UniProtKB/TrEMBL annotation:
<dbReference type="InterPro" id="IPR009003">
    <property type="entry name" value="Peptidase_S1_PA"/>
</dbReference>
<dbReference type="InterPro" id="IPR001314">
    <property type="entry name" value="Peptidase_S1A"/>
</dbReference>
<feature type="domain" description="Peptidase S1">
    <location>
        <begin position="40"/>
        <end position="282"/>
    </location>
</feature>
<keyword id="KW-0720">Serine protease</keyword>
<dbReference type="InterPro" id="IPR018114">
    <property type="entry name" value="TRYPSIN_HIS"/>
</dbReference>
<dbReference type="GO" id="GO:0006508">
    <property type="term" value="P:proteolysis"/>
</dbReference>
<keyword id="KW-0378">Hydrolase</keyword>
<keyword id="KW-1015">Disulfide bond</keyword>
<keyword id="KW-0645">Protease</keyword>
<dbReference type="GO" id="GO:0004252">
    <property type="term" value="F:serine-type endopeptidase activity"/>
</dbReference>
<dbReference type="InterPro" id="IPR043504">
    <property type="entry name" value="Peptidase_S1_PA_chymotrypsin"/>
</dbReference>
<dbReference type="Pfam" id="PF00089">
    <property type="entry name" value="Trypsin"/>
</dbReference>
<dbReference type="InterPro" id="IPR033116">
    <property type="entry name" value="TRYPSIN_SER"/>
</dbReference>
<protein>
    <recommendedName>
        <fullName>Peptidase S1 domain-containing protein</fullName>
    </recommendedName>
</protein>
<dbReference type="InterPro" id="IPR001254">
    <property type="entry name" value="Trypsin_dom"/>
</dbReference>
């Protein structure tokens, strides 16, 4: 068996068999030698290149301009995950673009890459009323070249949540509003957050049972640190020191306001969607060159007012 946290590997299911495919390295932050501890609402400006998998998904507006609409997360050189509700009423890939390796959206530097979108897939069971299955995948028209500023994050192994506790370093990042009714930030923000038990989030004076097993609560119990409008689709990334690797634990989905006490942000629980994600990635792999250098290593069986962010 592979080690419990195998940062380069993910399991694809073929009929009765599971195969472990291993990709190029993921979950690394080449420009940072240590975890950033700065505390995006309630956060600080991120360092340039700090979160190399953070993507700005932008919509084409009248006059030829593109406007940041949602966050996204790079999971391989052709694929960006985001929130399904970001696509409400605008699923035509022609109007979208992805900007990768960006820090200041008003001053895109030489390290950024802009990509048109070939295809968009929203989870077939996404529910707009409840934000259930709030996940979508963008297929880029052309692959990006990895650099210190553009890197994929690792998808979580199924058992990863057993190892997440209050000691786990988890972070959010995005270009969304910095106050509940404030303006979006042109500069990428970051904040450290706490994973909050669903039992706390579902209390009668909080979400009252709205949070299910496909969702994660994260933020601050006292409020003040949270994702906000414009951060939807962005990453909830957790660091594991045993592998020096970041895993995509969640995708920013919804919440009551921004940064309110007892109402932390709600995120799509990525481990629940491994099957759907990997099936979509397999479809992409069937149509692109094998520059991912996939290598089969092993075969084995594996026993209120609610607002989008």
């Amino acid at each position: 068996r592979p080690p419990p946290f195998s940062p380069n590997c993910t399991v694809f299911q073929f009929e009765r068999y599971n195969r472990l495919f291993c990709f190029a390295a993921c979950g690394q932050r080449p420009l940072l030698s240590s975890i950033s501890a700065s505390r995006v609402l309630g956060g600080h400006d991120a360092q340039v290149g700090a979160w190399p998998w953070s993507v700005s998904l932008q919509i084409h507006q009248a006059g030829g301009k593109f406007v940041h609409t949602c966050g996204g997360v790079l999971v391989n050189e052709n694929s960006v995950l985001t929130a399904g509700h970001c696509l409400k009423g605008r699923r035509d890939p022609y109007y979208w673009r992805a900007v990768l390796g960006a820090h200041n959206l008003w001053k895109l530097g030489e390290h950024t890459a802009k990509r048109k979108i070939r295809h968009i897939t929203v989870h077939p069971e996404f529910q707009t009323e409840t934000f259930e299955n709030d996940i979508a995948l963008f297929k880029l028209r052309s692959a990006v070249r990895y650099s210190d500023y553009i890197q994929p994050i690792c998808l979580p192994p199924a058992h990863l949540y057993q190892y997440i506790d209050n000691e786990t370093e988890c972070f959010i990042s995005g270009w969304g509003r910095t106050a509940e009714k404030g303006k979006t930030s042109p500069v990428l923000k970051e904040a450290q957050v706490e994973i909050i038990p669903s039992s706390v989030c579902n209390s009668s004076d909080a979400y009252g049972g709205l949070v299910n097993d496909n969702m994660i609560c994260a933020g601050s119990r006292s409020g003040g640190t949270d994702t906000c409008q414009g951060d939807s689709g962005g990453p909830l990334a957790c660091y594991h020191s045993s592998t020096n690797t970041y895993y995509l634990i969640g995708i920013a989905s919804f919440g009551v306001g921004c940064g309110r006490s007892k109402f932390p942000g709600i995120y799509v629980r990525l481990s629940q969607y491994r099957g759907w994600i990997t099936s979509q990635l397999l479809l992409i792999l069937g149509t692109i060159s094998l520059t991912l250098r996939i290598q089969v290593l092993l075969s084995y069986n594996l026993d209120f007012e609610v607002n989008p962010k």
